[in-house]
Amino acid sequence: YNVTVAKDIADTNVNYTVSEKTLTDKVNVTQAVLTPTFNNVTVTYGEQENITVSGTVPKTRFGVLFNGSVDIKIGDSLYENVDVKNGEFSFNVTNITEFAADKYTVVITQNGENRNYTVRETKFTNNVTINKKTVTATFAGATVTYGVNNTIDITGTVSNATYGVKYNGKVKVTIGTQTYYADVNDGQFTVTVGNIEKFAANKYNIAVEQDDSNANYTITKLETQNNVTVNAATVVVGINNVTVTYGGQNTLNITGTISNTTYGVKYNGTVDVQIGTHNYYGIAVNGGKFQVVVDDIGEFGKGTYHVTVSQNATNTNYTFTGAEFNNV
Q: Looking at residue 150, what is its pLDDT?
């Protein structure tokens, strides 16, 4: 500013005259330079719906409060024209999914010009922290019966975050010693074991764990005991009745079946066959069929006989009790 000095027109001094004079740039008023502050923010992905950003532009030494606007950049996201009222600002980033879990640097700059104040561009390194959310997997246990079910289906979820942000990624599912991989879509996954014969009838442990690097979530490994049960199938034995005539046949052939299960898995193993008081042990069953051949019909007298078929050895996948047939 210029300063002009002139005689006061009310001055009546007759001896002196003060000449008017202008002094150039003798009063210098400079802009106040203000350094903003920023309040640290820590949130967890999916637990907060938004990120609240706040801070101050401090008042001058004489207590004059800044009113205006600033631009705030969080990482690569720019939020312009944030109002500063009486030296304070606050606004919400309304969708946390704009950011992956990470640490972000904040830069505050002045928006537009202010004739009296300059807001110094200020950087706050790693002042916004977004943490991963730790989630857990759940699954529905499975119970199947060998040969009655052809598949084992394991369905499960990865828990949604508080505000409904759903997990998408991959999980590894281990059933016993068998490992499967599944996509998780909106928190849901399914593992289908397409052939139950990979598993003997038994109880199996299951484990579910994360199989990818997810920027926003960490899955806690889930391990459970005996949650998949494969039961042995109870099968049905049948034989074909035989009629022979002394002198007409020299051998006696008894053929039988052990019924196929619903999905066509056939019993293979051994059986013991008793015809009357005659025992034949370890008769092979192949593809569900067996045959007992008595080479000399003379071992039997004329009459009808009671036939019993019993399981010869333990089969982990199939079981049957002794089957009895009269009047053979």
A: 85
